[in-house]
Design goal:
single chain; elongated
Length: about 210
């Protein structure tokens, strides 16, 4: 508990910590606007990411700033909240303390909204070959892999041997992409693939 001034009156209000600035954490923070509670929102990134559109960044149809926004700006009209850029390293429930990389914070109430984690079914070695799509960094990795595949296919198609016989099978192999899962991103991606190809062809690929 901490004593704060609300409308000129000193009140004892509880301290609530929200870990995670995704949909869950942001919804909780907004719901507490005007409540007699002191809120601290902690996230290892200082922006909210609209994850359902992340696949469009991975295919180059949208830029990163079109699907993300600073958490402080989103919550700027909420007087009872503080946004911290930090990473949680542990929690002591009995002492009601959240341990961060750079400090410890005491709390009265705690909301954990840390999001998802991809399951590789005990095969962590698959990750370099099949990256998940959780963040803007992941989208950059996938977009680079797609562009590199087109570059390699272009190189194959432009070899002297290809002038006599186009290596269709090799080009098809290089430009075949597999999606594992049937979530939001995977189900929408095939419908967007023609637009992705049109964008890539606009980048003067000759294949």
């Amino acid at each position: 508990m901490k004593c704060v001034r609300v409308s000129g009156v000193q009140l004892m209000v509880p301290h609530l910590i929200i870990v995670g600035g995704g949909f869950g954490g942001l919804s909780a923070a907004r719901a507490l606007r005007g409540a007699a509670v002191r809120v601290t929102l902690i996230d290892k990134r200082n922006y909210h990411l609209f994850r359902p559109m992340l696949y469009q960044v991975a295919t180059g149809l949208l830029s990163a700033d079109e699907i993300s926004g600073p958490l402080r700006s989103i919550l700027s009209h909420q007087e009872n909240i503080v946004v911290l850029l930090d990473e949680v390293t542990g929690i002591s429930p009995k002492q009601r303390i959240v341990h961060l990389k750079h400090r410890d914070l005491a709390y009265d109430f705690l909301i954990l909204a840390t999001g998802i984690r991809y399951n590789y079914f005990g095969h962590g070695e698959w990750r370099p070959f099949a990256p998940g799509l959780e963040s803007l960094d992941d989208a950059d990795v996938i977009r680079s892999k797609i562009l590199l595949a087109f570059e390699r296919a272009e190189a194959v198609a432009s070899t002297p041997q290809a002038l006599e016989e186009v290596p269709i099978e090799e080009i098809r192999r290089l430009l075949t992409f597999a999606l594992v899962g049937a979530g939001t991103s995977a189900s929408r991606w095939p419908a967007r693939s023609p637009k992705c190809r049109a964008w890539l062809w606009h980048m003067t690929f000759g294949i």
